[in-house]
Automatic annotation (TrEMBL):
NAD(+) binds at T212, N243. This is Glutamate dehydrogenase. The record marks D169 as: Important for catalysis. GO terms for molecular function: glutamate dehydrogenase (NADP+) activity; nucleotide binding. NCBIfam families: PRK09414.1. The active site is at K129 (proton donor). Belongs to the Glu/Leu/Phe/Val dehydrogenases family. It holds the Pfam family ELFV_dehydrog_N. InterPro entries: Aminoacid_DH-like_N_sf, Glu/Leu/Phe/Val/Trp_DH, Glu/Leu/Phe/Val/Trp_DH_C, Glu/Leu/Phe/Val/Trp_DH_dimer, Glu/Leu/Phe/Val_DH_AS, Glu_DH, Glu_Leu_Phe_Val_DH, NAD(P)-bd_dom_sf. Homohexamer. GO terms for biological process: glutamate biosynthetic process.
Length: 448
């Protein structure tokens, strides 16, 4: 045991003592701590100043009541959250998730990951995350609007273009951001830079909708290129059928791969000829329907209930784009048997610790979420830049910048892995590269 491992164990024990029930948050901490031991060995000053004790405690957290009235006139109450995790390198930045499972543990795990992801983008943004246990599924537009208006009535006190800039995540897309922005503007006046993912007619950026999915494929391309390989002819399993999945399917197909699957929380579709992202987009984004409808429209597709990761088919690359912990240890073993060689994470923390161990055992390359899915928040930061200069860039301009940012994230993660002799452990590389910048900023700013 080194001083570094002793220290990390102590910090971990203190966190678990304070918040024993925050299982997702503790999982994110464990994934992170496993990889930064060599950095602490090189920088004893981080131990001396209890940097890890500080970096794992959010700077601020807000929990609030969100009352609203449904279409039947019944009064509903949901819980709202915003965790401002770390502002050392810029205003807090990160999405809002509306899903019945949202609680403080989930918001904290997402906020913690966001700190290092945002640092990796190379842009001046701190990390935050928020959301509510409100479920937009099955609600009318009017109900979603009333909920968003009530949510923003409280949140507006805590956000601002130089303070904290929320965006979308699961259950929060263009419709929700529009309602949230409208209520903010009503209460505080025009401030385009207070939210990102806005509509194009009121300050949104071209390519933000596509950014996380496109960025995931640019990252995957860079990871394959390091092994003299590319996406052409590859077979890919995608999970999810939302914002990230749809544009991941589009870009993967454009780059010559065949995407075999897409899924939602009920089941998945399999099409050996390749999933058509436009059909998924129509069903999920326009009609707000179920992925099972895909098989009713595309003859070559089959619909199956259950998880896409429990379905056996030969493929090369897994792109989990649904939610946390969707790939368990058992599913990772199955993924290895099916011949997959790469897992690039569109979703946040989609692999359990057992799954990550299984990838290592089978020499499967892992593109970790904080690197592979950073394209969304990167383009959000570009949206903030455009809002500040009151200009809008072309799609090509934003897309080119996104591609460079993703290539750079891979290069920096690889360089950090090389520096510490970690081989192709790009999870450790991303954690270290993301951590370095936040650590430098915190050390320079005193005990904060
Ligand atoms: N939207 C963004 O810009 C970014 C999103 N992410 C992450 O990507 C993932 C997907 O987010 P979005 O596509 O934005 O959300 P979305 O709401 O557009 O789509 C989510 C998809 O995942 C499925 N899903 C949700 N919970 C599930 C569950 N328990 N089991 C199986 N499927 C489930 C839904 O049916 C839907 O198809 C999340 O982990 C999110 O945190 C990461 C970076 C940026
Ligand atoms: O665009 C953003 O600010 C946030 C995106 C996000 O929530 C994420 O990266 O997980």
């Amino acid at each position: 045991m080194s001083a570094a491992t002793d220290y990390l164990e102590q910090v971990r024990a203190d966190i678990a003592k304070r918040d024993p029930n925050q299982t997702e948050f503790l999982e994110a901490i464990d994934n992170f701590f496993k990889t930064i031991v060599p950095v602490l060995e090189k920088h004893p000053e981080y131990i001396k100043t209890n940097l890890l004790g500080r970096i794992t405690e959010p700077e601020r957290g807000i929990q609030f009541r969100v009352p609203w009235v449904n279409d039947n006139g019944d009064v509903q109450v949901n819980r709202g959250f915003r965790v401002q995790f770390n502002g050392a390198i810029g205003p807090y930045k990160g999405g809002l998730r509306f899903h019945p499972t949202v609680n403080l543990s989930i918001v904290k795990f997402l906020g913690f990951e966001q700190v290092f992801k945002n640092s990796l983008t190379g842009l001046p943004i701190g990390g935050g995350k928020g959301g509510s246990d409100f479920n937009p599924k099955g609600k009318s537009d009017a109900e979603v609007m009333r909920f968003c208006q009530s949510f923003m009535t409280e949140l507006q006190r805590h956000i601002g273009p130089d303070l904290d800039v929320p965006a979308g995540d699961i259950g929060v897309g263009g419709r929700e951001i529009g309602f949230l922005y409208g209520q903010y503007r009503r209460l505080k006046g025009y401030q385009a830079g207070v939210l990102t993912g806005k509509g194009l007619s009121f300050g949104g950026s071209l390519a933000r909708t596509e950014a996380t999915g496109f960025g995931l494929l640019y990252y995957t391309e860079a990871l394959l290129a390091a092994d003299n390989d590319d996406l052409n002819g590859k077979k890919i399993k995608v999970s999810g059928a939302g914002n990230v999945a749809i544009y991941a399917i589009q870009k993967a197909t454009e780059l010559g791969a065949t995407v075999l699957t897409a899924s939602d929380s009920n089941g998945f579709v399999y099409d050996p000829n390749g999933i058509d992202y436009k059909v998924v987009q129509q069903i999920k984004e326009v009609e707000r329907g179920r992925i099972s409808d895909y098989a009713k429209r595309v003859e070559t597709a089959e619909y199956h209930e259950g998880s896409v990761w429990d379905f056996d088919v030969d493929y090369d690359i897994a792109l989990p784009c649904a939610t946390q912990n969707e790939i368990t240890g058992e599913r990772a073993e199955r993924l290895a048997k099916n011949g997959a060689k790469v897992v690039a994470s569109g979703a946040n923390m989609p692999s359990t610790p057992e799954a990550v161990a299984s990838y290592k055992k089978h020499n499967i390359l892992l593109g970790p979420a904080k690197a592979a899915n950073a394209g969304g928040v990167a383009v959000s930061a570009l949206e903030m830049s455009q809002n500040s200069e009151r200009l809008g860039w072309t799609f090509e301009e934003v897309d080119n910048r996104l591609k460079k940012i993703m290539q750079n994230i891979f290069a920096e993660s690889k360089a950090a892995a090389d520096e510490y002799d970690l081989g192709k452990d790009y999870l450790a590389g991303a954690n270290i590269a993301g951590f370095n910048k936040v650590a430098d900023a915190m050390m320079a700013q005193g005990i904060i």
